[in-house]
């Protein structure tokens, strides 16, 4: 399965979601490859911390850029890697890129994180247009919008407005999944961990695990 954590806007949590997906799938016994397709190399840095801290399970990670080759060759490399891994998770850069477009054309699942405010959702329109361009060639692509970094204060009002704005999208739908602003996520990420590496006996960790579990369910709907 090819999973894209992608957006045309930076700072929305793509890398954090990609890492958490990789951790959960690897802990389920699946052979996972995390591809960092962003030249900022956030996922590579996270992976380096995971290796340095000797955190199990081990997760394979590699950088791959379409600028190094034609988009066609990028897709061919992904297709070849697909034969060696159960799941390939691609973390694309926060802009309209060749990597983003190439992956949309072949992915099974797109997880599109977006901020909880209406202006954040407005920026999602660019991605919605790109998805629309590739759906005829990849009609089985499952597109899930996930609200990330939602405030815990007045959450229902804020998220309700964002949900209404997402409904204006033509090619993507709100998944119903909401990740709140939790220091737990960033603390774990900086150590090379995901939520599923945390201690469920701690209430703060369990809340993070519960939220990430909702994202995982979106993916498991498409596990072969």
What does this structure look like?
44% of the residues lie in helices and 19% in strands. The chain contains nine helices and seven strands. Strands 3-2-4-1-5-6-7 form a seven-stranded parallel sheet, with helices on both faces. β2, α2 and β3 (60-63) form a beta-alpha-beta unit. α3 packs across α4 (98-104).
In short:
It contains nine helices and seven strands, in the order E-H-E-H-E-H-E-H-E-H-H-E-H-E-H-H. By secondary structure, the chain is α/β, with parallel strands linked by helices. The chain starts with a strand and ends with a helix.
Topology:
Elements: E1 2-5, H1 14-27, E2 32-37, H2 42-52, E3 60-63, H3 71-82, E4 87-92, H4 98-104, E5 109-114, H5 118-122, H6 124-134, E6 142-150, H7 155-166, E7 173-180, H8 183-190, H9 203-220
Parallel strand pairs: 1-4, 1-5, 2-3, 2-4, 5-6, 6-7
Q: How many β-strand stretches?
A: 7
Low-confidence stretches: none
- Biggest pleated sheet: 7 strands, parallel
The SS-based structural class is alpha/beta
Contiguous helical run count: 9
Beta-strand content bin: 15-25%
Going across the biggest sheet, name each strand in turn: 3-2-4-1-5-6-7
Mean pLDDT: 93
C-alpha end-to-end distance? 8 Å
Shape: globular
Radius of gyration: 16 Å
């Amino acid at each position: 399965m090819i999973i894209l954590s992608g957006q045309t806007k930076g700072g929305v949590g793509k890398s954090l979601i990609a890492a958490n997906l990789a951790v959960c799938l690897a802990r389920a016994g699946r052979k996972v490859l995390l591809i960092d397709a962003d030249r900022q190399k956030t996922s590579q840095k996270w992976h380096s911390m995971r290796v340095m801290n000797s955190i199990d399970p081990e997760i394979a990670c590699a950088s791959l850029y379409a600028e190094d080759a034609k988009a066609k060759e990028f897709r061919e490399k992904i297709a070849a890697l697909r034969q060696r891994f159960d799941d390939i998770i691609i973390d694309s850069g926060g802009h309209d890129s060749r990597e983003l477009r190439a992956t949309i054309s072949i992915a099974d699942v797109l997880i599109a994180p977006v901020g909880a405010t209406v202006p954040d959702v407005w920026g999602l329109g660019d991605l919605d247009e790109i998805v629309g361009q590739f759906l005829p060639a990849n009609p089985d692509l499952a597109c899930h919008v996930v609200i990330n970094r939602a405030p815990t204060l007045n959450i229902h009002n804020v998220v309700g407005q964002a949900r209404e704005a997402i409904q204006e999208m033509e090619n993507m739908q709100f998944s119903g999944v909401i990740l709140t602003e939790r220091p737990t996520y960033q603390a774990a990420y900086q150590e090379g961990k995901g939520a599923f590496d945390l201690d469920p006996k701690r209430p703060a960790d369990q809340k993070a695990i519960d939220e990430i579990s909702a994202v995982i369910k979106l993916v498991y709907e498409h596990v072969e």
